[in-house]
């Protein structure tokens, strides 16, 4: 029997957690998962090895009910660079292997027109970098009308001005969704997002 907050997760997620021998939530997961499931915008800060990436994955799958729907992405995961994008893609595949969710990874090393055409074929989860995603948005390469959750992994990379500006540009083109930012520390610059897309946000720090 899974303890809270795991036991109310989708059965596909519980099956995968059990197969990975993850039966107890970390302190960070126990605090963050219920708040993310509630739909609130959230700043999450915790040290390495606290379970942040696993939390990002399972709450994304929970929000999408572990099944493919339509053609437009319903979840976006923003990462620092190509290397992080591929790591996140591989991490997601461990959890989506036995369901219908379609995970797509893009980065600035890929031609934007290729990404645009592949995304239009239908995806559920888009993993991308700030520059790549911003370019897609500027070319109307991503339909965000069905977007439910936008997560940022290790959000410290948004502090430099170029990435910070790209994030603001991206979020201005999204009508409405839930935002969850994960990092080891929430810097004052990240907190400034509260005056933009992180309005009414909550914070969890472990």
Summarize the model shown.
The protein has helices at 11-19, 27-37, 52-63, 82-96, 112-120, 130-138, 161-172, 188-191; strands spanning 42-45, 75-78, 103-105, 125-128, 149-152, 178-183, 202-205. It is of the alpha/beta class.
Offer a few descriptive terms.
DEAD/DEAH_box_helicase_dom; RAD3-like DEAD/DEAH box helicase; alpha/beta; 206 residues; Rossmann fold; 39% helix; globular
3D structure, described in words:
The protein is an alpha/beta fold and 206 residues long. The mean pLDDT is 92. A 7-stranded parallel β-sheet has the order 3-4-2-5-6-1-7. The chain contains 8 helices and 7 strands; from the N terminus they run ααβαβαβαβαβαβαβ. Helix 2 packs parallel to helix 3 (52-63). The chain is globular and about 45 Å long. The protein has one domain: 3-Layer(aba) Sandwich (Rossmann fold). The chain has helices at 11-19, 27-37, 52-63, 82-96, 112-120, 130-138, 161-172, 188-191; strands at residues 42-45, 75-78, 103-105, 125-128, 149-152, 178-183, 202-205. Residues 33-204 form the Helicase ATP-binding domain. Pfam families: DEAD (PF00270). GO terms for molecular function: ATP binding; helicase activity; hydrolase activity; nucleic acid binding. It comes from Mesonia algae.
């Amino acid at each position: 029997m899974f303890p809270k907050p795991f036991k109310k997760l989708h059965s596909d997620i519980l099956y995968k957690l059990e197969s990975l021998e993850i039966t107890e939530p970390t302190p960070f997961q126990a605090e963050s998962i219920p708040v993310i499931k509630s739909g609130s915008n959230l700043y999450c800060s915790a040290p390495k090895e606290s379970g942040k990436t696993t939390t990002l994955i399972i709450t994304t799958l929970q929000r999408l009910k572990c099944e493919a729907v339509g053609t437009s992405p319903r979840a976006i995961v923003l990462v620092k660079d190509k290397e992080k994008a591929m790591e996140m893609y591989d991490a997601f595949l461990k959890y989506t292997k036995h369901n219908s969710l379609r995970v797509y990874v893009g980065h600035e090393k890929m031609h934007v027109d290729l990404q645009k055409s592949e995304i239009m074929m239908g995806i559920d989860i888009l993993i991308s970098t700030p520059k790549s995603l911003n370019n897609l948005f500027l070319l109307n390469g991503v339909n965000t009308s069905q977007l439910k959750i936008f997560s940022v992994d290790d959000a410290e990379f948004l502090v430099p001005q170029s990435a910070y500006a790209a994030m603001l540009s991206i979020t201005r083109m999204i009508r409405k969704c839930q935002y969850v930012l994960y990092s080891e520390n929430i810097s004052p610059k990240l907190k400034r997002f509260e005056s933009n897309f992180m309005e009414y946000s909550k914070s969890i720090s472990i």
